[in-house]
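Job type: complex structure
Entries:
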Amino acid sequence: MYQKMKGTYDLLPEQTRKYQQLEKVIRNVSKIFNYNEIRTPIFEATNLFHRGVGETTDIVSKETYTFTDRGKRSNTLRPEGTAGVVRSYIENKLYAAKIPVQKLYYVGPMFRYERPQKGRYRQFLQFGAEAFGSSSPMLDAEVISYAVSILRALKIKDVTVHVNSIGDDESKQKYREALVSYLDGKVDTLCSDCHNRFKTNPLRILDCKIDKDSDVLKNAPKPVQYLTESAKEHFDNVIKYLEAMEIDYIVDESLVRGLDYYTHTVFEVNAHLDSLGAQNTICGGGRYDNLVESLGGPKTPGVGFAFGMERLMFALESINFLGEPEYLHLYMMVLGEEQKEEGMKLLNRCRLGGLISDIDFLDKGMKPQFKLAANLKARFIAIYGEEEQKQGVINLKDQESGEQITIKKEKLYNKIITELMNPSSNCTDCAEESCDSCE
RNA sequence: GCGAUUGUGGUGAAGUGGUUAACACACCGGCUUGUGGUGCCGGCAUUCGUGGGUUCGAUUCCCAUCAGUCGCCCCA
């Protein structure tokens, strides 16, 4: 038997409905913030990710899915969304668009070769946003508030927003030197991973989980202490605007994040749920003022974030989030070979009128068909057999009330529509929140 | 890349070195040849992830492999 590849999963209809509902909320909030959807390819030239995300990052150094195509080109399945969106921004010259600040979002699969575990897959879904063309701290604050609004709209409450600033190039450079000279000689006391980080990416040592409580790290210099005047001012303003919008946050001086392209603001949203296991970062993001230029575009600042959709779904499932319920308006019960033709005709007429309808394809008897209709959650069952055919009528059973009436078969569609218009009896306690059935 | 743990029908799961692999739910059929959801009766794994080994004999023991789950690293 064929099996799905490691780290992938099938979304069956029941689960898909939940994702559709999740996407619906995401699109609504995006609309309110005036972010518009962009769809870029799921694979790009390998080089794009190496330059964009950074050669030394774990993502490109050991997690990419890369293949050579028949034209001998090296392609890589996208491990994250930003690089592709930036490429598209540059290639389509969006920097020259009539609207100077381009605000974009995307939803789609990403690929990373990792050992799967809770909330982590090799093919996973991300929802992300990118805003280009302004270095205003207002935009950093807007992006954070956008991320928080998504969570609010989803009614996910137990979260913390961590923010920090790693500053502009000059700040980063100064800080890096200070950290390296501070750690020089002290590295031996840290874990083996930190030894490597010391050479490749010293900033990452800061958020090492193993050594986080050691005195060496506690007393280590922090990025904020090395911010230039303007970088400091930028960060202060971001904080000021977050305060103005009443967004709860924690300044986390050790927050660095793993991707090379970040400058100034970096942030993360953590959910506090046991159901998420060890992967409780549901959103990560930050500012990247040099990325567009380093990928060959004009000097253009940007800010963005990405959510892990599977992780969002874990959070949602713990608060009993449901998708659109599954149901039928009509189940067409045909009894007998001679009745099938008329049955198909009636069924089709109802479908053309927009009724969600279905029929049996397995020549089942009446009893199994009743059971099937119940499993399909049909509101009405239209019974058409020998007797009905003789008299030119059809029996219509309302599954909600249990009542059954005999009507002329031509009246089937109109009768169902009339009944569906009546206020539903099982929608009595919808007073506090509007539901689709009541509207 | 490293570590832990699991792998029996559609699902949840018992079980034992030895002829027929519990039980429950689901599903199917009948009792009731035109009215489901209750009740009763019956059906539903020639087979215990896959391959190899030990053995007279393995689903049960060993090895390998594949897959799931969780953790480390890192990340969403």
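Summary: Chain A has two domains: 13-168+228-317, 328-419. The longest strand of chain A covers residues 102-111.
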